[in-house]
Amino acid sequence: MKVIEVDSLRKRYRDRLAVDDVSFTVEEGEIFGVLGPNGAGKTTTVECVAGLRTPDSGTVRVLGGLHRDALKEKLGVQLQSSALPEKIKVWEALDLYASFYSKPADWNALLERVGLADKRDARYGKLSGGQQQRLSIALALVGDPEVAILDELTTGLDPQARRDTWDLIEQVRADGVTIVLVTHFMEEAERLCDRIALIDSGRVVAVDSPAGLISRVDRQQTVRFRPSGPFDDAVLKALPEVTGVHGGGGRVEVTGSGNLLLAVTTALAAAGVVPADLRVEQANLDDAFLALTGKKITNGDAR
Amino acid sequence: MSKMITTEAKLFLREPGGLIFAILLPLVLLIGLGNVIPGLREASPDMGGQRGIDNYFPAMMTILSVVTMALTVLPGTLAAYREAGVLRRMSTTPVSPIRVLVAQLVNNLAVAVIATTLLVVLGNLFLDVPVPKNPLPFVGVFLLGTASLFAVGLLIAAVAPNAKAAPAIGSLLMFPLMFVAGMWFPREFMPDLLQRIGDFLPLAPFGQALRDTWAGGAPQTLNLVVMAATLLLFGGLAARLFRWQ
């Protein structure tokens, strides 16, 4: 079942076109990534989906066409740059936000789930960045929504807090909540998302699974190793998987495609050579984004 | 809604700065200066034979309390909420952020009521300040004047570019308004022109109408009209210009 259908969305702010032409659908129960560099139009897109902005043209259908308050009952949203008063306590925030919904979730259980049970009486301003984000996720879930939109959730978190947040998102999906994850982190999208809409300059470049996106780029792989002794390049060059062999300084770099690693190690074993420091490099989402847009994302900015 | 109000009230008590200025300062000034300055306790022919302490001074302390809440505490809190994204966050829920605004108004009004009650009761106990002799009109004037100043505060919150600017703009407006309202010396001693200017600014009519009803008289029509006009004009502008994010 399609829970979100976005068709030919367009939104202009006074001086610039934020969203030019965005279409995608989100299926029930999936983690759907909206991935792109800063300023690509990701946040504007999800704000239109959440009913917080009115698109200039195009249509948005959420959960079969819910609007306004009925939509907000079923759609949990955690937005970038939205916070709580510094001095509100964790439990007070959850209790207050639970009172906004007609059928709220049990916020005590939610507090356990996001790992903040021992921070119940702590003030929002005293929480770490990761704890604030987890409270923010809890608030997005306190209405017991069917869909949750999570915008730039792990920006500014340290690696451990980021991984904890990822685990939490996977648990939430396991509970049956459809998740729309807005991010500029390739690693995050690759790890969490079932499907991704790649957005650049207000347009959807591609919608596919992470593996599907990666397979669109040149399937070139690289195998690097240090051979235990000298050997003839020809044993590798003869392999159908191999397209090139380069050596130097005691290291060998083999490029090719298909099951390159297996072919190379088998041939080396036959030649009596042991490869040390063996490494395989495959294309990832960064390469896919580069191939599809001609840009590279560094710290969220497209270059 | 009640949960919203109680939560905002708790947050309010955790930032005691505003409360100290709005409740304690006017009270300490009333009791302290009322005891220290003998002139306040002597009948003055320029004030129609009234003593300064009879209604002039307590009325000034009342508007000091209300104007502090209305022009610094209220706009400061709302602008800070907007800047931090508190209002934006709430707009993603089925509940409108208007409720935060209402809760803020209720709490600020409560503080003004408590401050005024303390001024009346403690002034009477310690300084023999007579309680307002025309109580119902006094309460009406109090509510109208407070509402009109809150409207000014909401407009400040609406147009302030950031959280720090809001209370700063409020303070900047407060001092000239308090001056022409007679905070430092009674309006009777001011040149006619200054009195006339004061009549058409937000604060002086409030102070004058409180004095009149405190002394047992009726409020002047002009004062009531200016307060009502302030409420409508500033309230309307605030409603038009208020931004949630």
UniProtKB/TrEMBL annotation, chain A:
- Superkingdom to which the source organism belongs: Bacteria
- Ranges annotated as spanning the membrane: none
* UniProt source species: Planomonospora parontospora
Biological process per Gene Ontology, one example term? response to antibiotic
Where does the record place the ABC transporter domain? 4-226
What InterPro entries does this protein map onto? AAA+_ATPase (IPR003593), ABC_transporter-like_ATP-bd (IPR003439), ABC_transporter-like_CS (IPR017871), ABC_transporter_ATP-binding (IPR050763), P-loop_NTPase (IPR027417)
Protein name according to UniProt: Multidrug ABC transporter ATP-binding protein
Against SUPFAM superfamilies, the record matches this protein to: P-loop containing nucleoside triphosphate hydrolases (SSF52540)
Pfam families registered for this protein in UniProt: ABC_tran
> Which keywords has UniProt assigned to this entry?
Antibiotic resistance, ATP-binding, Cell membrane, Membrane, Nucleotide-binding, Translocase, Transport
Any one GO cellular component localisation term in the record: plasma membrane
Q: Which PROSITE patterns match?
A: ABC_TRANSPORTER_1 (PS00211), ABC_TRANSPORTER_2 (PS50893)
Q: Which CDD domains match?
A: ABC_DR_subfamily_A (cd03230)
Which locations, inside or outside the cell, does it occupy? Cell membrane
Q: How does it sit in the membrane?
A: Peripheral membrane protein
A GO MF annotation of the entry reads:
ATP hydrolysis activity
First-listed, main subcellular location of the protein, grouped into a coarse class: membrane
Q: Entry's PANTHER family? A: ABC TRANSPORTER ATP-BINDING PROTEIN
From TrEMBL, chain B:
Transmembrane region(s): 12-37, 57-81, 101-126, 138-159, 166-185, 222-242
The source's superkingdom equals Bacteria
GO biological process assignments: response to antibiotic
Which keywords has UniProt assigned to this entry?
Antibiotic resistance, Cell membrane, Membrane, Transmembrane, Transmembrane helix, Transport
Q: Please tell me whether the keyword Transport is annotated for this protein.
A: yes
Question: In which compartments does the protein localize?
Answer: Cell membrane; Membrane
InterPro entries assigned to the protein according to its UniProt record, in alphabetical order: ABC-2_transporter, ABC2_TM, ABC2_TM_bact-type, ABC_2_transport
Every copy of the ABC transmembrane type-2 domain together lies at 17-245
GO molecular function: any one?
A: ABC-type transporter activity
State the name under which the record lists this protein.
Answer: Transport permease protein
Provide the taxonomic classification.
Bacteria, Bacillati, Actinomycetota, Actinomycetes, Streptosporangiales
